[in-house]
Request: fold
Amino acid sequence: MSEGTIEFIDEVCGIYFRTILLKNRGDEVSQHKHDYDHATLVGCGAVVAFVGEKCLGEFWGGQAVPVKAGYDHKFVSIMDETRLTCVHSTESANLIKEKGL
Reply:
């Protein structure tokens, strides 16, 4: 399974956007966590979202998945050409840059 391809990283109006393409069904954004709350928008396609081992269900293009700080989460594509965009404040983006991630 692929980790996906980062397509865009933008900071606009105090909001940080990171867009990832999951090219094939079964590709995933593997389990990870952040020090901040954020949302992941399914731009197109569909994913199954997990927090820890708990499945949150399917999310389709146009839906957003809320993710609380400190929780492991992952996304598995159930359609080819699925795009996800992580959305959070630029303040949290600065924390990412400071950590060199």
About this structure: The chain has one domain: 5-99. The helical segments are 90-99. The first strand starts at residue 5 and ends at 12.
